[in-house]
Write a structure and sequence with these properties.
The complex is a heterodimer of chains A (251) and B (639). Chain A is an alpha+beta fold and 251 residues long. Helices cover 35% and strands 12% of the residues of chain A. Chain A has two domains: 3-111, Ubiquitin-like (UB roll), CATH 3.10.20; 117-131 and 143-248, Fumarate Reductase Iron-sulfur Protein, Chain B, domain 2 (Orthogonal Bundle). In chain B, α3 links the parallel β1 and β2. Chain B has a five-stranded parallel β-sheet with strand order 5-2-1-9-17. Chain B has a five-stranded antiparallel β-sheet with strand order 11-15-14-12-13. Chain B has a four-stranded antiparallel β-sheet with strand order 16-10-18-19. Chain B is globular and about 75 Å long. Among the domains of chain B are: 267-399, Succinate dehydrogenase/fumarate reductase flavoprotein, catalytic domain (Flavocytochrome C3, Chain A, domain 1, Alpha-Beta Complex), CATH 3.90.700.10; 472-599, Methane Monooxygenase Hydroxylase, Chain G, domain 1. The longest helix of chain B is centred in the C-terminal third of the chain and has 25 residues, at 554-578. The chains are: A alpha+beta (251), B alpha+beta (639). At the A-B interface, α1, α2 and α3 of A face α3, α5, α6, α11 and α12 of B.
Amino acid sequence: MRFTLFIWRQSNKEEKGRFKKYQVDDISSSMSFLEMLDLLNEQLINKNEDPVTFDHDCREGICGSCSLVINGVAHGPERGTTACQLHMRSFKDGETIHIEPWRAKSFPINKDLSTNRRSFDSIIQSGGFISINSGSVPDANSTPIPKTIADKAMDAAACIGCGACAAACKNSSAMLFVAAKVSQLSSLPQGKAEADKRVLKMISTHDKEGFGSCTNTGACEAVCPKEISIGHIAKLNREFIRAAFKSDLNL
Amino acid sequence: MLLDGKIPPGNLSDKWSKAKFDMKLVSPANKRKYKVIVVGSGLAGASAAATLAELGYNVACFCFQDSPRRAHSIAAQGGINAAKNYQGDGDSVYRLFYDTIKGGDFRSREANVHRLAEVSVNIIDQAVAQGVPFARDYGGLLANRSFGGAQVSRTFYAKGQTGQQLLLGAYSSLSRQISKGAVNMFTRSEILDLVIHEDQAKGIVVRDLISGKMTVHYADAVVLATGGYGNVFFLSTNAAGCNVTASFRAYKKGAGFANPCFTQIHPTCIPVSGHFQSKLTLMSESLRNDGRVWVPKKKGDKRPAKEIAEDERDYYLERKYPSFGNLAPRDIASRSAKEACDAGLGVGDSGLGVYLDFSSAIERLGEQAIKERYGNLFHMYEKITNENPYKVPMRIYPAVHYTMGGLWVDYHLQTTTPGLFAIGEANFSDHGANRLGASALMQGLADGYFVLPYTIGQFLADQRPLSQSETGELEKSGQDTCQKVENKLNKLINIKGKKSPLQFHKELGEIMWDKCGMERDKKGLSTAIEDIGSLREEFWQNLNVTGSKESFNQQLEKAGRVADFLEFGELMCRDAKEREESCGGHFRTEHQTEDGEAKRNDKDFSHVSVWQSQDEKAPLCHKEKLVFENVKLVTRSYK
């Protein structure tokens, strides 16, 4: 297979970027998308040109490093798939492919296709945890948790923190990311004690980091590689409204 | 090199309690005066950094990824062992201890392994309290599955994402401490060397991967939680960034490196599909609970699996190991797969694959039940291979997955360099010559949550904190080390040869897989040592690193890691050559029984081989004798 690629090149955060055209030939349909980029980079190195910088690590769809907008869609054309798990068989021979980094104000570009997602860590640091210290905990089976609730918490917890949700959103809202964590922890009995404080703090940090508001377009759910449902945003809203009322009334 | 394991005296089951009581404490008011550096933010690193901060130490944590949540522990699928005996099926701390010692082919320390089994139960409590959504039964209590090398169900799991969920648990505790200011987190920061001052580890040299800026960080103790070195084989199940640099730099600076040749080749990975392949993907061992492994009985049988009748199939694990069947330990399952393929019975285009077939489980339990257990794994398999495993059997082949060897540590997890600790996969301590499934998560978290936070106090209590000391001399040696690292980076950039770091890495991987992989022999290892030497020479003359050192430069990162792998690979081959026996994952073709099983030599090799670097000369091999007071050394049998 052969492809014409238009790749976003930008040497650092400050500099202005632009698309640059490349041609790749001899691509096998069972290559992953990132392996295709590896091959391009080897060609560039041979010509002593600067290879394309992109984030990747596990290459099995779980670490959340890879973050490419492919033909205008975060993580590319396959649903429920990270860019690293996307294979070239999903494209037509001879196709032109546009590759961009995440586009969101809160994810500034480091270089080329790599962005800075520290804002996501800040959101978790503001409350995405249960406040317990190592060792001072009860036996794991002391509180039975109905399977349906445990399974629901697991569905939310599957989030890999890649940022596709915010990159796909026209408002650059990271509400699906926040909702996944809030929903996981507030469904479980262990997480209820600080549920109110958690949701208020996480939303406040989300806004401070410059992410926009949610207008329920569902674009996030469509690109989420772990197919996390926007139903969790509904739960987040309920948690948030309840907590906000209670804090207004000093309850 | 003095190898004092510092194993506490007394009965096996009392050693850890006694050690904890005997250890010196640092008073709460003094803890904040001590600074501890933790390198790595996987299960071991994140749990250690969080716990040390909770205790009151001043912690700095470093990772090369853009967030601590992305460390490769995240990719562990199947589960975590713990001796909870929630299933009432006869499990106990002693049984977990025994299974682990036996699984490791009697090449690990009794006391360390027993402690691991003891604290395993605390890990599950800890994770549940953090909100880790483990699988549960309808009654609301925790569910278990069985795993290779055990006859009880003691593995806790969260779908096929157990590593992810446990890591996110540890990451949440770490995040909480970061928000309190108790941990200073440095992301996209790679350790390139250690600062050793007056024979003690006192800091690290770090490169900021975005700006290229070099900095030196000082501390009262340095903890390496930098994972394993499976990527020395190039193709492995490790993440692209996993590397040996931190451990190898520690070794070059004097820390002993233990059993480097002990590598785990995991039996259930997706076979290689082409020369462009950048990594191998694991399919969790838990699949062997319901999948049956087979190959056609007839050589070169290329018919589709469903056309091969029952009596034309060889379910070779069930045949050879009737009591463990498809759940034989990893080393045995891997080697059996290789044997079948070497005999021409392999399946798939390359002939390097065996079937893992779920049809009888789907018939018995229904597709929905299988989907619930392994849905995400089946999905991943289909993504990669374009085949539907609900309809046709999976094809699997062994791949490098984990490294049991690592920095030598004593019972306190301290290396031979005072002040330098190693935890998780980075140390050698608990898995002997073969790790059992679902034990890596257990060990990483045991070290980080429950062992190191105690043992490091014993060391620090005797130290005058840096925060209250004159540090002029130390800073001089720190700057000196930093300068040497910069010189090396300049050297890498200025070679301006023809070959990329990736090409060198691939070539090294081929040598390692060929000569130091699933089977090894003396002649092959000698050749490998020579070949690696020549490749290394070529590397320093013909490497091409584009870009500059003062910018975000992924080629330079890769080149530095490959440079260390090129030296480390040789050390592995030396170790494999020196160990004239077969045990666990280390199979020397010269040492096998008549029916092709590993033949251990307890008389001469019941020891840990610890390598000491000697600048230009060949490294020295020291031995720590393994003493077994509680278990009897037997030939491992899973028949």
